[in-house]
Amino acid sequence: MKIGFIGLGNMGGPMANNLLKAGHELCVFDLAEVAVKKLTDQHLGKVTAMSAPKQIATAGMDLIITMLPAAAHVKSVYLGPDGLLANIPQNTALIDSSTIDPQTAREVAAVAAAQGNVMLDAPVSGGTGGAEAGTLTFMVGGEEVEFNRYKTVFTVMGKNIVYCGGSGNGQVAKVANNMLLGISMIGTAEAMSLGVSLGMDPKVLAGIINTSSGRCWSSDTYNPFPGVLENVPSSRGYTGGFGSDLMLKDLGLAAEAAKLARQPIPLGSLAQQIYQTFSLQGNGGLDFSAVINLFRKK
Ligand code: NAD
């Protein structure tokens, strides 16, 4: 398949790499030349670097995938005068895998549909490790028939491909999951800090939580207390992993979506404020489990 790919960052780069390894022909674009060069050097002759979204839009692609930082970038790439929708022919399919708010996803998909282009929102979870290994989870919103049509493409980049319902619902699933993740990480951080300050050994405490009713992913797979688990950010100075500023962005998306739906999210809002504080203190680049440092003695 001829695939256009825009946004070759930490996630998009390895996703495009997996598509190339599976034999797809790619035309790519990223504002950062270094990101493009990394991919073109890896796949000499199999990938074509383009100079703008417009050039990809007019190059006869079967499908165009985007993996961009936030809604503003998605709007500019899709809706700008030199963007995709002003320039693609009808019947070119579009998949946006960026994490953005459901409302923007629905608005952009509606513009695409009005001019005869199918668009799916397909945010991912699984992090950079999952992107490299091709084991991402895709949460997909849009027409089910189109989901089924492009399932084989998703399968090249991911392991768990889930149809979530109509347009925007992939983003809804992502926002709800990540809000819970932020809340559960803060809860785990508080509980671990309390137990240790009252005299418990952190490994023993984590072991009890992980076989009791407090068990959750933040505790049993990604424990924020240093030394409890190996090979997680808390055991390597909170480097790598999922940045606190990315968690803050996702909590902001949940807050925006909740406001529109007039849906109360008291704990989600508190989690947003806690990550805001943490980020303001200069910690936005640390893994999100480093939030435990707010609750521990220096
Ligand atoms: P990133 O910042 O590493 O990559 C984004 C890329 O988009 C960059 O290379 C940037 O140059 C490019 N870009 C920005 N504006 C552009 C434009 N107008 N035209 C072309 N290219 C443009 O970000 P990432 O970590 O790859 O994340 C991408 C998306 O995936 C985000 O929405 C993020 O929330 C989501 N996500 C990230 C992770 C993670 O662990 N990093 C996990 C799940 C989901």
Walk me through the structure:
Helix 1 runs parallel beside helix 6 (127-133) and helix 9 packs across helix 12 (244-261). This protein folds into two domains: 2-167, NAD(P)-binding Rossmann-like Domain (Rossmann fold), CATH 3.40.50; 173-294, Orthogonal Bundle (N-(1-d-carboxylethyl)-l-norvaline Dehydrogenase, domain 2), CATH 1.10.1040.10. Helix content is 49%, strand content 13%. The model has no long low-confidence stretch (mean pLDDT 96). Strands 3-2-1-4-5-6 form a six-stranded parallel sheet, with helices on both faces. It is globular and about 65 Å long. It has 298 residues and is α/β, with parallel strands linked by helices. The protein contains 13 helices and nine strands. The site of nicotinamide-adenine-dinucleotide has 26 residues, from helix 4, strand 7 and helix 6.
Q: Give the overall silhouette.
A: globular
The CATH homologous superfamily name of the largest domain equals NAD(P)-binding Rossmann-like Domain
Distance between the termini: 54 Å
**Tally of structural domains:** 2
Protein structure class: alpha/beta
Which strand order do you get reading across the main beta sheet? 3-2-1-4-5-6
> Could you tell me the mean pLDDT?
96
Assigned CATH class of the largest domain: Alpha Beta
Element order: H for helix, E for strand? EHEHEHEHEHEEHEHHEHHHHH
What's the architecture of the largest domain in CATH terms? Answer: 3-Layer(aba) Sandwich
List low-confidence stretches: none
CATH topology of the largest domain: Rossmann fold
- Heteromolecules bound: nicotinamide-adenine-dinucleotide
**Total of DSSP H or I helical runs spanning 4+ residues:** 13
**Total number of strands:** 9
Largest sheet: 6 strands, parallel
Helix percent reads 40-55%
